[in-house]
Design a protein that fits this description.
single chain, alpha/beta, 7-stranded parallel beta sheet, 44% helix, globular
Length: 245
């Protein structure tokens, strides 16, 4: 599997923990040249030391800022001269029933889960279209396939990621750019920690007793990246065997 990964320049957002950190470790050990962005620069720097990344391979990045995301991609170009893959992974999941009117949480999800993905796409497309190659991986969720009470806005943002990704897939065919949507179920990450309603947070923590390792995500993205250039793995949906939705 490493044959299709080794040497590739890969940018990962939300890389300070959870899915992003697991993907960074997995891909770096497969020989990828990873460039990592997240808000928590201390965690990124610790991960950079663990993986022996070169100076400039991590950058404090708030994906709600188009300038921040562009600067992250520009860092990969400065280091490696190209960008082969971006994994738009940063996300939030502050579940709550609509009747509670958690407007600030809704705004945060829209800004991170939708705009953050769009900003990642905007940052890499000029480079990938010019080099006539590339791979854009957008992280959705099983919530992008099924809506459940209390997760309405989150599900809407993850549906949006799938719609954006499918439109992108059709638009970038002339440039030999591949696109992949990865839709995880319950994976053991800090995502439930973003829930601000105590009762919802408690129910979610109980449900997450069946959560699987973030390495499951890392293996999924590695599979999509490692496929030959003429194979476009457009969507991967995975969840714990015990998860019922």
């Amino acid at each position: 599997m490493t044959d299709g990964i080794s040497g590739k320049s890969i940018v990962i957002t939300g890389a300070s923990s959870g899915l992003g950190a697991a993907a960074a470790r997995h891909l770096a050990r497969a020989g990828a040249k990873v460039v990592l962005g997240a808000r928590r620069i201390d965690r990124l720097e610790a991960l950079a030391r663990e993986l022996a990344l070169p100076q400039g391979a991590v950058r404090a990045t708030d994906v709600t800022s188009a300038d921040d995301v562009k600067a992250l991609v520009d860092a990969a170009i400065a280091l490696y001269g190209r960008i082969d893959v971006i994994i738009n992974n940063a996300g939030l999941m502050p579940h709550s029933p609509l009747e509670r009117g958690k407007v600030a949480d809704w705004d945060r999800m829209i800004d991170v889960n939708i705009k953050g993905v769009l900003y990642g796409i905007a940052a890499v497309l000029p480079h990938m279209t010019a080099q006539k190659s590339g791979h854009i991986i957008n992280v959705s969720s099983v919530a992008g396939h099924k809506v459940r009470p209390g997760a309405t806005v989150y599900a809407a943002t993850k549906h949006a990621v799938r719609v954006i990704s499918e439109g992108l897939r059709q638009e970038v065919k002339p440039y030999n750019i591949r696109t992949t949507i990865v839709s995880p179920g319950m994976v053991a990450t800090e995502l439930p920690d973003s829930i601000t309603e105590p009762d919802v947070a408690e129910r979610t923590r109980h449900a997450y007793e069946h959560a699987i390792s973030p390495e499951s995500f890392a293996r999924a993205v590695a599979y999509a990246i490692a496929e030959p250039d003429d194979v476009d793995v457009n969507e991967i949906v995975f969840r714990p065997t015990m998860q019922d939705f």
